[in-house]
Design a protein that fits this description.
This protein is mainly alpha-helical. The radius of gyration is 30 Å and the shape is flat. The model is unreliable at 51-56 (pLDDT under 50). It has 15 helices and three strands. The protein has a three-stranded antiparallel β-sheet with strand order 2-1-3. It has helices spanning 28-37, 62-77, 82-92, 96-110, 115-120, 128-140, 143-197, 206-242, 244-256, 260-281, 286-296, 300-314, 319-325, 331-343, 346-403; strands spanning 5-12, 18-25, 41-47. The termini are far apart. Strand 1 (5-12) and strand 2 form a beta hairpin.
């Protein structure tokens, strides 16, 4: 299949007025034919060239998909036809790659394909859960309502991911900065003091000697140390990607980590509740919905638990009972599911459970950030302050000798 590209066109519309714009197509001839079908007589069609400094326009991120879904839901609720809604949304996006993706979907739908089938051509951006929900909306004749539900689901899950990412990256980023600052002090600052101490002719304090020895080691081997750290990080990431057992071991350990483990656990429960609520409310059968839910939890411990729940539910067991048997889910969410099953309002109770645990994650992240700030200041103080004290100790001792 030929790759789609963006073409710039100029011409006249049905009223004979001059018009110009962009269109996504595989070649100029097909682009002209498409414009003619829209009532535009194109006099010039040329491929849009990328500026040397424009870059790739940014990759398509999950947040972009969430925004696209919300805009489509809003357009359809306003009564805008589906194909026209694609055009309006595509013209309004800032990232060229997002606009190109929307135009490709629009062309497929305009060519007679269903919305769900058009989305399935882009599995990197639209997973099975997204496509299944859109297809369910098309079949039931309530696509605008389903798009609104999907948009809410995507917005909530992306917000949750961002909060967890913030909790994990903040301390790591500060530790990296502390490591870099310490390295700079050892490589550039300590040697200056060492030259001054060489003229003292007296024995240096043990702490100062230790820091100078560390500085000399870092100066001699800093390149090897840097390559070793980069290699270790790259090796760990590669091993984690390739080894299922390593991923499972890391996921189990992460749940036991102080503070961070609680955040990961509650975020997994929130994603489980939010995804199951959305799929069940869309009319997807419970067993089939659990297949989609498993991958959304983000932790292999919960993935394994959800698959066990699916097997138990398919054999006739109640959802709350099978959740309890896994020993993974908190009692509160199990009780809320039990109430939902008894009252026939499972989707509503799961939605409330998801909102509760999302709020819990939000509060935990705020508390962690507040707790980390003084701890980070203490770490930086010990590292930088320790080096400064080590360098000034001989000067203090010399002052005492001169004063004596």
């Amino acid at each position: 299949m030929a790759e789609s590209a963006t073409f710039l066109w100029e011409g006249t519309d049905r009223q004979g007025k001059k018009a110009k714009g962009e269109i996504s197509s595989t070649n100029p001839a097909i682009a002209k034919a498409e414009l003619r079908r829209q009532g535009i007589n194109a006099t010039k069609v040329k491929k849009k060239t990328k500026s040397l400094f424009s870059g790739s326009g940014g990759s398509v991120k999950p947040a972009d998909i969430a925004l696209f879904t919300r805009q489509m839901a809003t357009m359809m609720r306003a009564g805008v036809p589906l194909v026209q809604a694609f055009e309006i949304v595509a013209d309004g996006v800032e990232k060229p790659k997002v606009g190109e993706l929307i135009r490709q979907i629009r062309n497929d739908v305009a060519g007679g394909s269903s919305f769900g089938a058009a989305l399935r051509k882009h599995p990197a951006h639209f997973d099975d859960l997204f496509c299944n929900l859109v297809e369910a909306g098309e079949q039931s004749g309530a696509l605008e309502t389903m798009l609104d539900r999907i948009a809410t689901y995507k917005e909530k899950t992306e917000s949750l991911k961002a909060k967890v990412k913030k909790a994990m990256t903040y301390p790591i980023a500060v530790l990296v900065v502390a490591f870099v600052v310490t390295g700079i002090l050892l490589i550039y600052v300590v040697p200056q003091f060492e030259q001054v101490f060489a003229g003292f002719g007296a024995e240096l304090p043990a702490f100062t000697q230790m820091v100078i020895g560390l500085s000399e080691f870092v100066q001699a081997w800093w390149f090897v140390i840097l390559i070793g750290i980069i290699g270790a990080v790259f090796g760990f990431i590669t091993a984690r990607r390739r080894s299922q057992k390593l991923r499972e071991a890391i996921d189990r350990l992460s749940l036991k980590a102080p503070i961070a483990g609680t955040i990961i656990e509650k975020s997994a429960v929130a994603r489980f509740s939010r995804t199951l609520s959305t799929t069940f409310a869309a009319g997807v059968p419970l067993v089939e919905a659990l297949n989609s839910v498993a991958g959304s939890t983000g932790n292999s411990v919960f993935v394994e638990a959800v698959y066990k729940i699916r097997d138990d539910v398919s054999s006739g067991q109640q959802l709350n009972t099978s959740m309890k048997l896994t020993n993974v889910f908190p009692n509160m969410v199990i009780q809320m599911v039990a109430i939902g099953e008894e009252a026939g309002a499972l989707d509503s109770m799961l939605d409330k459970a998801a909102s509760y645990y999302e709020e819990q994650v939000d509060n935990l992240v705020d508390n962690l950030t507040a707790l980390m700030e003084p701890m980070i200041m203490a770490v930086l103080g010990v590292l930088v302050g320790g080096l400064i004290i080590a360098m000034y100790l001989p000067i203090f001792q010399l002052g005492q000798v001169v004063g004596g």
